[in-house]
Amino acid sequence: MTKFFKDYSREKLDKVLEKIGVKNVEELYSDVPDSIKIKGEVNLPKALDEIEVEEYFEKVLGKNIVHDEVLTFLGAGLPPHYVPAAVEAIVSRSEFYTAYTPYQPEISQGILQALFEYQSMVCELTGMDVANSSMYDWATGAAEALRMALRVKGKKKVLVGENIGPERKSVIRTYLEPLECDVLEVSYDSVSGRIDLVDLENKVKDSCALYIENPNFFGIIEKDALKMADIIHNEGGIFIVGIDPISLGLLKPPGEYGADIVVGEGQSLGGWLNFGGPSLGIFACKGDMTLVRQMPGRIIGMTTDLSGERRAFTMVLQTREQHIRREQATSNICTNEALMAVATVAYLALLGSRGLRKLAVEIFERAHYACRRLSEVKNVIAPYFSGEFYQEFTLKLIGGDINKFFNRVVDKKIIPGVILTRYFPKLDNVLLSCFTEVHTIEDIERLVETFKEVMA
Which one, of 94, 115, 93, 92, lies nearest residue 103 by Cα? Predict the structure, then answer.
């Protein structure tokens, strides 16, 4: 191990080791199992000049399929949306870049006001009373909501819909595993794609929370969400709903059908698709102080200064473990997505309530137009599930190999969606496709013609 410190003189190295109280370099790594330690020399390539490094990475990056080079209908949690130039201009200002994460109470009033406005807009959008100033992303927000429910209710069993995002489901299980609680999945109906209420009633006993997504992973609107709220509330549990925020321009806010906590992905509100991020975790809850005191993250409040005359903004709740609460912290979230929250404020302010509704209706109509046109293609069942959908829907290919079909479509520079067999083995030959305002009628017709050509 000493060979890795060959640039140090023996005398200098001995002084360092003596100062920190160890006998040799190997003792520094005594906690690392021998089985994973590097044996012998490290086989690293020769050093490159700066220009050579740039040339190398340009060559590697050139192998990627860039979003703008293909027509893509991928969604599954991160649908493509248009970002107005004004949003990018606002979040590019140095005042927001340099005041990125509000750790200290003396942070600038400007960023605090922006986060306060963000919280206010999230509450208005979701029908909740209190929102924090963001989480990492939807998945961690959902996991934190369930941990919050476990703390509040003191039980060891939670329910999640089988038809929620598979990657979010994986994060939930990872976050909840150390708590040694039961995470049970509520089945979805094989015809409608919605949560099976009978299965929910059979599993709800002793549950402290139910987490569903509306629309769910299949893009289907959970029309029985109010009944689900009643079922879990009758058991004394907490109803948690995951949302696509733009869909709330058209659908009822979760606060109107009994949600206690709402989480979601805010990237669609002024965010960019960039290898899946940056993301923005929406998190809001009812005004019940039992819930509010257990919220993760930070809450920004509005008050007045010492004179009582000027408006002032400040952090009124923060749960970060490095602060005064330490081991009593309700969450170990160590940052938030403040810059993305500012983008959300700018985006929603630009659209306004009427603009948001117009956008949601446009997305709904384009997805249904695409479904109708694809249903006309031979050997394609669209939609596969019968439940009403919003911007995504499932379609099934009759006969043939869906992987070969998918690759042939990709060869024509179109990504038609997500093959669901990877996440749901029962859904053989089923594809999940997404349509938003960035897809023109011409794009949809090109997809339909490609399907016809490849299916022929």
Answer: 115
Distance CA 239, CA 233 (A): 7
**Alpha helix (H) ranges present in 7-137?**
10-20, 25-28, 50-61, 85-91, 94-98, 109-126
pLDDT digits (tens, 9 = 90+) for 213-271: 999 999 999 999 999 999 999 999 999 999 999 999 999 999 999 999 999 999 999 99
pLDDT digits over 208-226, tens only?
Answer: 999 999 999 999 999 999 9
Amino acid at 433: S
SS3 content of the chain, % helix, strand, coil (to 5): 45, 15, 40
CA nearest to 195, candidates 165, 218, 172, 163? 163
Residue 61 lies inside a defined structural domain of this protein: no
Write out the residue range of the structural domain in which residue 428 sits.
Answer: 67-81+352-455
Is residue 271 assigned to a domain?
Answer: yes
Instruction: Tell if the pTM clears 0.70, that is, is over it.
Output: yes
Residues 288 and 208 in one domain: yes
User: What DSSP element (H or E) covers 159?
Assistant: strand 157-161
